[in-house]
Amino acid sequence: MTDTATTTDTATQVTGGIAMARQLAAEGVEHVFGIPGVQLDYASSGLAAYRDQIRFINARHEQTTTYAADGYARTTGRIGVALVVPGPGVLNAGSGLVTALACSSPVLLISGQIPTRGIGHGFGLLHEIPDQSGILETLCRASTLVTEPGKVPGAIHGAMVRLQQGPGPVAVEIPPDVLSATTDGGAIGPEPAGTPSPGADADLGAAAELLMAAERPVIYVGGGGAVADAWDELGELSTTLGAPLVSSANGIGSFDNRHPLAFLPLANKELLARADTVLFVGSRALEGNGRALRTADDATLISLNHDPLAFGPPRSFDATIAGDARTGTAALTSLLEGERAPWLDDPDAVRDRVSEQLSPLEPQLSYAAALRNAMPDEAILVTELTQVGYVARYTFPIRHRRSYLSPGYQGTLGYGYPTAIGAAVGNPDRPVVSINGDGGFGYGLAEMATVMNYEIPLIGIVFRDDAYGNVQRMHKQQFDGVHLGTELTNPDMLALAAAFGMTGYRAESPDELQATLSTAIEAREPCLIDVPIGITPDPWAIVTRPFRG
Question: Is residue 133 domain-shared with residue 242, that is, in the same domain?
């Protein structure tokens, strides 16, 4: 709680559950994704009292609560809120928490606890696990255990302030006896979000001098660019500096791919090799193996990152700025002296070389193109760990801010459909398309019931190869064709959709998918599209190939 906080509402006796719901309403929370349970009875009662202000979305699995909160947060820019019971509920929600951690997503998890008198004593109470508080502290940026009903509003408010100050999930634990006890404290008024720091003036000035001295600068954007919503600022810096704009796979969606100097991720290898100066924005500047990102040996390297831990070995930067990706980028642009002409005289040739490199990846390329052709610019694509999703990372141009979601470096299989629920709830006027493999979709297919229960117009697409296709391919390549545990038995997807009362389609070619998806988007209703795809070419040998100029 800060010194400027004020209280609202009449100070009358209410339960801790009412105090929780009242504080969430005061903070402007409009949706909570959760599953009720005995330790949360008074939390549920409190939310019921505020149902005209907060819509409770009841999921079918705890993992969906945090996944959906993450999808909600990343596509709206608002804080996503999840509510689960203690113990197994918290552990189930953990996959969504670590995805939010990997993607620096502002997610608040409110979890139950065992009764206060039992915490830490190993009594074997319902849903008790060893050191739940310690687990949450490990998975979140911060975690608070509330021990008195009068402290509930302050704990919720403090979590919301913490989420405004830096990205990543935050947890608040509230035992059932605290939720049922009474307090006379009012709600704490919300505080306007402050402007994130662009970084120290001296650091910005030093970086700007290096950029002005560069002959072949490149701007490389990581996931922090999307989190900070630096969409406009990155485009302006690219234009002013005359620098190509590229991203990591996690940075997709940080900028408009229609910008004349913007490139899809696979082009970064060639452009980094040709650059004499690289500005990393919101990026860890690491390869997938943990080594420093490959650049020209004599290149000047600059990093703008909110997290100073991103500046350490194995990376070696000539200048660093501990600041926000959006405000820091804007500050750098303001320090540059006039607009420069682009140094890259062959942008289309670079794009052509990338296209040629990817050309063997059919039918994935055509399916990714069908998605882009059918989806309006403002539509949100939630990718998965699936064959078409892997290729879409390198071929799907983004044309609207907050319109592309991936699981970040966690690579959490099965995150996609539950995450897309949160995106669709938070963006009722924008089409949301969730692409899945049959393996990943199996993790969350029960959430079709949630989609129908709340009439969420989510479009789910399942590219079905009846296998954990990526794992099966790797097993075969490494072990002389032997594979284990990779074959799947799937339901008839159209019959499955019908069982939930959902519209189902089948598309057996890219052209059919494009036409079917266009129809589904126009219908604005929940639906499932089954796409039998079979065995597809291996993308990894192509996308991991080093650039040789």
Answer: no
Q: Which residues of 66-100 are buried (b: 16+ CB within 10 A; e: fewer)?
A: bbbbbbbbbbbebbbbbbbbbbebbbbbbbbbbbb
Residues 45 and 177 in one domain: yes
Q: What integer is the mean pLDDT of 77-100?
A: 97
- Residue 369 within a domain: yes
- DSSP category for residue 175: -
- Global confidence as pTM: 0.95
In a domain, 195, yes or no: no
What pLDDT is attached to residue 548?
66
What does DSSP say about strands 55-58 and 31-34: parallel, antiparallel, or unpaired?
parallel
* Residue 113 · residue 146 · CB < 8 Å: no
DSSP string, 158-171: HHHHHHHHS-S-EE
Which tens digit of pLDDT belongs to each residue from 365-393?
999 999 999 999 999 999 999 999 999 99
Q: Which two tokens stand for residue 115?
A: 């009764």
Same-domain check for residues 123 and 98? yes
Contact 405, 380 (CB under 8 A): yes
Query: Is 81 in the same domain as 178?
Result: yes
Q: Is residue 213 located within the same domain as residue 282? A: yes
Domain of 74 in residue numbering reads as 7-186
Q: What is the pLDDT of residues 230-289, one digit of tens each?
A: 999 999 999 999 999 999 999 999 999 999 999 999 999 999 999 999 999 999 999 988
Contacts of 399 (CB under 8 A, 6+ apart): 256, 257, 258, 377
Burial of residue 13, with CB atoms counted within 10 A of its CB: 0-12 exposed, 13-18 middle, 19 or more buried: exposed
How far is C-alpha 381 from the chain's CA centre? 11
Long-range pairs, 284-289, Cβ under 8 A, ≥24 = 284/222, 284/310, 285/220, 285/222, 285/310, 285/315, 286/314, 286/315
CA distance 326 to 195: 10
**Same domain (yes/no): 414, 483:** yes
Task: Look at residue 192 and tell me if it is in a domain.
Answer: no
Average pLDDT over residues 65-86: 98
